[in-house]
Amino acid sequence: MDWRYNRTNLQVVTPNFNFPLLTYIDISDNPNLGGNVPSLASSTNLQICYAIRSALTGSIPNFSQQNLRILWLSSNQLTGTIPNFNMPILQQLRLNNNQLTGTIPNFNLPNLAYLYINVNQLTGGIPNFTGMPVLVEFFAAANQLSGNIPNFANMPNLKTISLSVNQLTGSIPDFNLPSLSTLFLRKNQLSGNIPNFSNTSLIAAPPAFTQLWLYDNKFVFGDIEGKTWLNTTDVEYEPQAKIPIVLNGTSLSVNTGSANNVQQFTWYKDDVVVATNQNNTFTPTSSGKYYCKISHNTITTTSDTLRNLILQSDDYNAAILPVELLNFQVTPLSKTAYLTWQTASERNASHFDVQRSRDGKTFEKLGQVKAHGNSATLQSYAFTDETPAVGTYYYRLQQVDFDGTTALSNIVSVEFGSKHKLQVFPNPTKDKLTIVSKSKGEYAIFDMIGHEIRRGGLLNNATDVTVSDLPIGFYVVKVAEESVKFFKN
Question: Of the residues 7, 123, 153, 280, which has the maximum number of CB atoms within 10 A of its CB?
Answer without folding.
Answer: 280
